[in-house]
Amino acid sequence: MGEWYTSGTLFYIGTKLVRLIVILALAAICLRFFGLVSERFFLGRVGAGKFPLEEKRAKTLSTLINQILNYALYFITAVIILQELSIDTTSIIAGAGIIGLGLGVGAQNLVKDMISGFYIIFEDQYAVGDYIMTADMAGTVEDIGFRTTRLRDGNGVLHIIPNGVISRVSNYTRGHMQAVINIPVSYQADTEKALEILEQVCMEVADMPEVLEKPKVVGIVNFTSSEIMLQVVAQSVPLKQVAVETAFRRKVKVLFSAANIQAPKP
Questions:
Q1: How far is residue 242's CA from residue 97's CA, in Å, rounded to a whole number?
Q2: What is the pLDDT of residue 51?
């Protein structure tokens, strides 16, 4: 029982432990280094260089490349540790390949998810921070991987969606949004005066930071049995169209009341 408890054995075990600690420490340093390099490489290209990137797309690519490098480093570190423990990794890698080939037949959904994730990322369908709608879910994209997309809705619920089931996406944060403001007035109201007031409000609202260009008065767009419908359209910053509509209606209410422009009666 006591023969293994010798100075040579203890030195061997101590050396192995030190080598394992050094390997793990180097792996941790490499993880941190790769994360910083990928982040600086992609974020450094935001709006600069011959091929500039948008900030959201740069963050998405940085996160994805960092994940790939991490997985590769985990695998390499595991193989090195097994070799340090005098375990034959050749047979393990070969066995893993055979098992992987056998599982490949039953992993069609996984392959489909990864291929879909590849197209989502490199076609720039959406990026981290975008507000999207897919199927019956809508929310802000928190993370995009090769296999899944993480989407947080307005109630704070995090949805993890396999990329393979994302067949249609509506992106609310690309380009401008259009605010459509319908203003009903009664048949007794002075419609010409109402249209003049709408033009005045368009000039005032045009200074809002959420408005991309001066709103336009479309005019009378509909008649019903009890009202005349006037309409204004405005281009707004993505996801800010409700703020523009609210501000516009508030100003219209004040000026219509001052000019005695009657609203339709129920």
A1: 54
A2: 46
Bridge partners of residue 211, in order along the sequence = 236
- Dist. CA 117–CA 136, nearest whole Å: 19
Q: How far is C-alpha 189 from the geometric centre of its chain's CA atoms?
A: 47
Per DSSP, helices labelled H in the chain are 7-43, 55-84, 89-106, 108-122, 191-205, 241-258
Please provide residue 12's backbone torsions phi and psi, each rounded to the nearest 5 degrees. -65, -45
Average pLDDT (161-190) is 87
Contact (Cβ atoms closer than 8 angstroms) between residue 237 and residue 210: yes
Please check whether residue 161 is in contact with residue 152, taking contact to mean a CB–CB distance below 8 angstroms.
Answer: no
Task: Provide the whole-model pTM.
Answer: 0.53
pLDDT in tens, 14-48: 787 888 888 888 888 888 888 787 777 766 656 55
Residue-range domains of the chain with CATH = 7-106 (1.10.287.1260), 123-171 (2.30.30.60), 177-258 (3.30.70.100)
Cβ neighbours of residue 246 closer than 8 Å, sequence gap 6 or more = none
Residue type present at position 186: S
How many Å from the N-terminal Cα to the C-terminal Cα in the chain? 98
Q: Which residues, including other chains, have CB under 8 Å from residue 187's CB and lie 6 or more apart?
A: 226, 227, 228, 264
Cross-sheet strand order for the sheet of 216-223 = 177-185, 228-236, 216-223
Q: In Å, how far are 27, 64, 146 from 38, measured between CA atoms?
A: 16, 9, 17
